[in-house]
Design goal:
five-stranded antiparallel β-sheet, binds 2-oxoglutaric acid, alpha+beta, single chain, globular, eight-stranded antiparallel β-sheet, Jelly Rolls, 5 helices
Length: 277
């Protein structure tokens, strides 16, 4: 079993992160907290616990990125959601993403005031999943007045090659954003910068956390087995970040003055245990 981490990052770990663009942090949540997050995620997918503002996207029927539906509100009770956003609205997930180790990491990168661009569930449902092509997390498409730099990705289940773990190109964050627009890269860029032999599969135990630089080239595949590959990915940013289109619009603060508090987050609907609303 992976050791549960408590101590802050060392100088050597920061140096490794700067060199590789990712860093394995080990397990952060206790067994008990991890089980609560897993159960809570299923409750949200099945509609037993609901928040009006959350964003839901079902998995594609084909596994092709181009076939992913647009998404919007919660639709049906299903464990086949691909992506769910705004999990900071949920007390269990907010408490988790405010872990003191995550705060120490964010403080070093951004200072005391930190917001989230997204706190997102990424799922490769059993025997399903959608290929996520190589991409970087930033650029004009994100609609921000500055680029976020770090993401903390946590495995909610054991992630392996067969159930669609992440694959990264170590050091590729040093290329900077490969396009001004950001996100996916061209086939030419992929053949130049994302060669299979240069890639590393980030298999992870349930509960393991990986710190990612947002410019690290990363992708993930589909799930070929019965075990889901659920993950929780939080992109943290400078609390002063504003929408590029509307300077009045900030983002949910999670550290520093005005940060969200778990005790203030209440679901809009809680159905009877075992039933869907
Ligand atoms: O979980 C995955 O498969 C990919 C997640 C991702 O792209 C991200 O967290 O930025």
């Amino acid at each position: 079993m992976t050791r549960q981490r408590t101590e802050a990052l060392s100088v050597a770990e920061w140096a490794l992160f700067e060199a590789e663009g990712y860093l394995r942090l080990g397990r952060i949540a206790s067994e008990e907290h991890l089980s609560r997050l897993q159960r809570r995620m299923d409750d949200i997918m099945l509609g037993r616990v609901r928040y009006k503002e959350m964003y839901f996207q079902l998995d594609s029927a084909t596994g092709a990125y181009g076939d992913v539906p647009n998404g919007g509100e919660w639709e049906v009770p299903s464990l086949a959601y691909r992506k769910i956003e705004k999990l900071e609205r949920d007390a269990e997930f907010l408490r988790y993403l405010q872990h003191p180790l995550f705060q120490a990491i964010c403080r070093r990168v951004y200072g005391d005031s930190v917001s989230v661009y997204r706190s997102m569930f990424m799922n490769k449902p059993a025997l399903q999943g959608t290929i996520l092509p190589y991409h970087q997390d930033g650029g004009d498409q994100w609609g921000l007045d500055r680029n976020p730099l770090i993401t903390l990705w946590s495995a909610l289940d054991k992630a392996t090659i067969e159930n669609g773990c992440m694959q990264v190109i170590p050091g590729s964050h040093k290329l900077g954003l490969l396009s001004k627009q950001g996100h996916t890269i061209t086939p030419k860029q992929e053949s130049e910068h994302a060669k299979d032999e240069a890639s590393v599969f980030l298999e992870a135990e349930a509960g393991e956390v990986i710190l990612l630089h947002n410019w690290l080239l990363h992708r993930s595949g589909v799930n070929t087995i019965e075990r889901p590959r659920r993950a929780f990915s939080v992109c943290y940013m400078d609390g002063a970040t504003r929408s590029a289109h509307n300077p009045e619009r900030g983002f949910p603060l999670v550290f520093g003055v005005g940060a969200l508090r778990p005790e203030d987050q209440n679901p809009d609907v809680i159905a009877e245990a075992g039933s869907a609303v």
